[in-house]
Amino acid sequence: MTRNQTTETKNSVIPISPEYIERKIFIVQGLKVMLDTDLAELYGVSTKNLNKAVQRNLKRFPLDFMFQLSEKEFENLRFQIGTSSSGYGGRRYMPYVFTELGVSMLSSVLNSDRAIDMNILIMRAFVKLREMILTHKDIADKIEKLERNQKEYSEVLVALQSMIKHLFDYSSKASTPIGFRKNGKG
After folding, report:
1. Quick check: 3 and 67 in contact, CB under 8 A?
2. What is the pLDDT of residues 53-67, one digit of tens each?
3. pTM, whole model, 2 decimals?
């Protein structure tokens, strides 16, 4: 693996790809978040211990850093993940999710070498997703502009087609010829 795909601690090499971390970031309440279970896995601690560390430092985690999912949000998230309950079943409470700010704050709560290294990778994944969203927004704006232009051009073409049809209809109608006829009428 390349340096980009691993993170090295003093004791070991942890093979985590940036894409793996990006797949662990979800949208809840319009925010990019990560589940406590996924973060615990990445940091190499149990979910219970991660949440205990957070509870001991609750002042560091306001609602824009971390919040607990409602049952409906959790069901929607499980649908977004594409799994019924694999890895998340058997919980006595709804999971917590951490925003980018909350993940950053976790580095001050979990102070192992692995946690620090994982935090660096996770922060890079959030930045990469933000850049991708901005790129997609630019592309979406350009497509929207093209669609608007296409609609305007389409309206002009329909009007031209109608005018041409009207001209052909007018010219194809029988009209009285100009001049004299043989039979002497006209």
Report:
1. no
2. 999 999 999 999 999
3. 0.60
